[in-house]
Amino acid sequence: MGLSTHGAINESGAHAMLGAAVTFTAITAIALSLIKRWVTDTREERSRLSDEQKQAEEKKLRYVALQGALEAENTRIKQDLAAERAQGLAALEVKKAAMEAQFEKDRFQIQTSAFRSGVLFERAGMLEPDAPIPGNLIQFPKQHPDPERSETPQRERSREHGVVGP
């Protein structure tokens, strides 16, 4: 800038132009160095990247810890279910044994009652082969396959109201 001022005072156009060119070159160099620093300065981005990497690592550690806790919980639940199943099967076996004992007891009582009834029927004579069967049986007249031989005359069939009969 001084060269430019010196050229203007001395009325030297070359010195004034040279001073202006040097000044513009210096300003351009300073501006370019500032732009380069602004474009290539990654301190802030690196800092953000570092923070995000730390957060990602923390999330990963939390995920791994939660996954381990979940697997432990699943294992515990499976063990609890197996224990409950075994306990339920044992209870069912006990109930089954009690029901079988009750069944055998009832069966024995029914057999005893049936045997006593059989003895009473035998003593009363109801089980003899020639014993008369009490009851009212309706005796039908003997029917012959040939109507001419039959002793009773054949009736004519009724055709009223669509009734079909012998």
Protein architecture, described:
The chain is mainly alpha-helical and 166 residues long. Among the domains are: 43 residues; 62 residues. It is built from three helices and no strands. It starts with a helix and ends in a 42-residue tail after the last helix.
Question: Could you outline the blueprint of secondary structure elements for this entry?
Answer:
Blueprint: H1 2-9, H2 13-40, H3 43-124
Helix pairs in contact: 1-2
Low-pLDDT runs of 5+ residues are none
The number of helical segments is: 3
End-to-end gap = 147 Å
The rounded Rg comes to 60 Å
The count of strands amounts to: 0
Describe the biggest sheet? none
- The portion of residues assigned to helices is over 70%
Q: Quick one: overall form?
A: rod-shaped
Order of helices and strands: HHH
Question: Which percent band covers the strand fraction?
Answer: under 5%
SS-based structural class?
mainly alpha
Question: What is the mean pLDDT?
Answer: 82
